[in-house]
Amino acid sequence: MAEPKTDSTRAFSEAWKRACSDPRPSVVYVPYGKFHLRDIAFEGPCKSNAIVVRIDGTLVAPSDYSVIGNAGNWIRFHKVDGVRISGGILDGQGTRLWSCKLAGKDCPNLHIANSKNVVIDRLSSVNSQKFQIAITDSQNVKLQRVTVTAPGSSPNTDGIHVERSSLVWILNSTISTGDDCISMGPGARNVWIERVACGPGHGISIGSLGWKFQEPGVENITVKRVHLSDTTNGLRIKTWARPSLGFVSNVLFHHVVMDGVKNPILIDQHYCPGHGQNCPSKASGVRVSGIRYKSIRGTSSTQVAVRFDCSKSNPCTGITMHDVALTYLGKEAAVTCVNARGTSSGFVTPLVRWS
């Protein structure tokens, strides 16, 4: 399709248009090699709901992020149904953008938007400029055997972000990044995460939530058989200290192993990443309930392994801890618990004194 350093955007766009306009099942094939792309949108709806995008090569983003400008995404699939993305490497070349973000500037990923029945299989995403893979306003999306890689110092490079979407599976994947390995924003529902390795990164997070007053809730989340290593957080729920009609309910964390995790179990309803500067100081309106921790074990790199810092006006309710064993330097770790109500059963250490 193109020689290295040749802009392949037009060729990809034309190949997609042909596949999308054909009512028969189609394959868009990317052979071995490097193919340079500007921002590109693969638009639907298509006449076929059986399109395979098979990638054997590497897709390379512009190293100069200003080329993408205000597009907000690098590669975007919009209003598609029945697309399967298989194999390949996405190289976001995010180094210059990360420097810009660290300088505090507002600077310009794979984005599945307004779509359904999408499969992403054996895809590798490297050094994305922002979120590595984002799923928004979509239904029935399965990601499996995905590899996400970025340095631990790269800002805002969430591995997989899910928002306003339902029936999302993230399976058998490995994520190393500079932000949340997996993040679930407002409106994430019916999400199943299983057999994922995370680290470095900021762990698996629900949130941040509650920045807006009118905001859809997060519910029916399952996280199973996950391994977190050397992450700044483990299993985290984070909400802003602002009025909100948002909520988090029916969440299960099951069979999770942690190695050297800074904050293994955390509900933070006073979330503010600004190191105490310009942080909202009201009570969080986000209601957190029905959070279950089962068969969690491992080591904390800080003394406090479990921290429930819940809203004074909306205390966390229905938290259950069953067979949780977290240690610090070979000894029992500590707990802080504020405005949280729940129960413990089985062998639980450190033991939570519910408030």
TrEMBL record:
<keyword id="KW-0326">Glycosidase</keyword>
<dbReference type="GO" id="GO:0005975">
    <property type="term" value="P:carbohydrate metabolic process"/>
</dbReference>
<keyword id="KW-0964">Secreted</keyword>
<dbReference type="InterPro" id="IPR012334">
    <property type="entry name" value="Pectin_lyas_fold"/>
</dbReference>
<dbReference type="InterPro" id="IPR000743">
    <property type="entry name" value="Glyco_hydro_28"/>
</dbReference>
<dbReference type="InterPro" id="IPR011050">
    <property type="entry name" value="Pectin_lyase_fold/virulence"/>
</dbReference>
<dbReference type="Pfam" id="PF00295">
    <property type="entry name" value="Glyco_hydro_28"/>
</dbReference>
<comment type="similarity">
    <text>Belongs to the glycosyl hydrolase 28 family.</text>
</comment>
<dbReference type="GO" id="GO:0004650">
    <property type="term" value="F:polygalacturonase activity"/>
</dbReference>
<dbReference type="GO" id="GO:0071555">
    <property type="term" value="P:cell wall organization"/>
</dbReference>
<dbReference type="InterPro" id="IPR006626">
    <property type="entry name" value="PbH1"/>
</dbReference>
<keyword id="KW-0134">Cell wall</keyword>
<keyword id="KW-0961">Cell wall biogenesis/degradation</keyword>
<keyword id="KW-0378">Hydrolase</keyword>
<protein>
    <recommendedName>
        <fullName>Polygalacturonase</fullName>
    </recommendedName>
</protein>
<feature type="active site">
    <location>
        <position position="202"/>
    </location>
</feature>
